[in-house]
Amino acid sequence: MSRYFTDEHEWVEVEGDTATVGITDYAQEQLGDIVFVEVPDVGTELGQGDDAAVVESVKAASDVYAAVSGEVIEVNEALEDEPGLVNSSPEEDGWFFRLTLSDKEELADLMDEKAYKAFVDGL
Amino acid sequence: MNENSKNLKQLPLGDWHRSLGARMVPFAGYEMPVQYEGVMAEHIWTRTEAGLFDVSHMGQLQLIGEGAAEALERITPGNLSALAAGKIRYTLLLAQNGGILDDLMVTNTGHHLYLVVNGATKHDDIAYMRAQLPDSVTLHHLEEEALLALQGPKAAAALAKLGIDPHEPDWPKPSDLHFMEAGSFLWRGIPLGISRSGYTGEDGFEISVPSEFAETVAEALLELEEVRPIGLGARDSLRLEAGLPLYGHDMTAETLPVEANLGFALSKVRREQGNFAGAERVLAQYPDKAETRRVGLFVDGRQPVREGAVVVDAQGATIGKVTSGGFSPTLQRPIAMAYVPTDMSGTGTAITVEQRKKKIACTVADMPFVPHQYHRKPKL
Fold first, then answer.
1. Helix count (H) and strand count (E) of chain B?
2. Residue A41 is part of which domain span?
């Protein structure tokens, strides 16, 4: 199991051909109180860089892009009743969706935890 | 911070906000605090305790000279020449075609008019007023004055703890002011102009203070347990709940007062006189003849609709637009303001909003969404 990060502050946890996607602690901190998360429908084919989800805070909506391409196989239903999970547990219980990776080569474009930490420290 | 931040002006209290842990963002040409502990917590604090806002980006102006009120009436629809000393009026700055250039508060201090205009529009407002006002009226831009707002159910009790004296012994104390009244005060030798007004829907005050003393006053207020600093984020969600329009979003130079649902600002005397800028075009819509109207919307479900989303009819054609939208912390549901066809502006009318290709069901709602708590003067 390994975890990757993007410069858009998403994390991608890969296990075999399956990837779980969410936003980082840094991202939730920047967004503030999250009141709604629009996740993609199961079955959606996402290309790398496509609009995948929308995170709504009290004040603004922010797009979440697909860090990797693949087919959405599961979404976090708990976010419907409790969007605040993204604030309280962004990198565990507040995950957004799971997809089947269509191109594992794309993972090479992403950062590992150490590189991401250095990236955030530089902001 | 982006590279534009070096072009941003600093508020008198800029460093103070940073020392309190504020996140600063560009707004109206200034670096301003958008939040401290979080929008939701700050919003709820203001509705239950007292919130301290720095609104020093707003323009504070004086109009001095014989006939200042009558001159200002040429470009506003408010009955300003009848405004008694110590009273405040909300009015609109109108272009020659009647379009709304800004909304503003006008106070008769007894010897001049004191105006508070929006930060993003203040330089344009000043240029327009200087061009329109006669030479006998002088406009001063009070650039060395900061403006603080203290808002919430405990604002009056908090302000009373400071022990602010009237400027003259027989003048009223701050707690004697009613909603939309103002006066001059002294606190530890610092001159304060205090208005019982604000833009949150709560009881509260706006305090004009020389910039060099702004931190002293802000610090004294923040030492009180019921007072916390509140950023622009919560200011926006508070005014939205209160049904108060935000200039540049809910009305612009393209909007006329009646369609903006600000017909109340066209005072009866001035409607009869019909001698303000754009009066013919403005009054042609009065009271309900505009094609579209600004209304409040309750949004079904949990997802907010945002500024820029469109109102559509059953065939999917665009018939209006959302101008403000967000999540109401008080009501725990999304709310919005939108322009809709006047025949669909009645309370309870079903409205469809389209956002990111998704149709969202809404219902026209009475505004304010959350009742105003103003300290009004009792009716006799």
1. 9, 21
2. 2-114
Give chain B's contact residues with A (Cβ, < 8 Å).
Answer: 35, 38-41, 43, 233, 236-237, 302-304, 306, 326-327, 329, 334, 356
Contact A61 B329 (CB under 8 A): no
B-interface mutation test, from A57, A58, A65, most B Cβ less than 10 A away: A58
Does the global pTM surpass 0.90? yes
Predicted confidence (pLDDT) at residue B197 exceeds the cutoff of 80 = yes
Number of domains in chain A: 1
Task: Say yes or no for a CB contact (<8 Å) between B43 and A35.
Answer: no
- Counts of helices then strands in chain A (DSSP H, E): 4, 9
| Architecture category of domain B291-365 in CATH | Beta Barrel (2.40)
Mean pLDDT of B370-374: 98
Give the amino acid at B355: Q
A-chain CB neighbours of B237 within 8 Å are: 58-59
Look at residue B5 in the predicted model and tell me its pLDDT. Answer: 57
In this complex, the residue of B236, B327, B329 whose CB is nearest that of residue A56 is: B327
Residue B1 has pLDDT above 80, yes or no: no
B307 to chain A, closest Cα gap in Å: 10
- For residues B339 and B297, give the distance between their C-alpha atoms in angstroms, rounded to a whole number: 10
Of B337, B345, B350, B328, which is closest to residue B309 (Cα–Cα)?
B337
* Tokens linked to B288: 């309900």
Q: How far apart are CA B51 and CA B27, in angstroms?
A: 20
Chain segment A46-95, per-residue pLDDT in tens: 999 999 999 999 888 999 999 999 999 999 999 999 999 999 999 999 99
Measured between CB atoms, does A54 come within 8 Å of chain B?
A: yes
Bridge-based pairing of strands B113-117 and B138-141 is unpaired
Asked whether residue A83 is domain-assigned, the answer is yes
Distance set, CA A70 to CA A98, B159, B217, B371 (Å): 9, 59, 57, 48
Q: Per the domain annotation, does A43 fall within a domain?
A: yes
User: Cα distance from A2 to chain B (closest Cα, Å)?
Assistant: 32
Nearest to B233 among A36, A56, A58 (CB): A58
- Max Cα separation, chain B? 67
Residue A121 lies in a domain: no
Cβ-based contacts of B356 with chain A (< 8 Å): 51, 54
Q: What is the pLDDT of residues B4-21, one digit of tens each?
A: 556 899 999 999 999 999
Supply the ipTM of this predicted assembly. 0.87
Residue carrying structure tokens 């479900």: B301
The residue-averaged pLDDT of B158-182 equals 94
pLDDT tens digits along B77-96: 999 999 999 999 999 999 99
Domain ranges (residues) in chain B: 3-55+144-241, 291-365
A60 touches chain B (CB under 8 A): yes
Identify the CATH number of the domain defined by range B3-55+144-241: 3.30.1360.120
pLDDT at B6: 66
> Is residue A26 one of the residues assigned to a domain?
yes
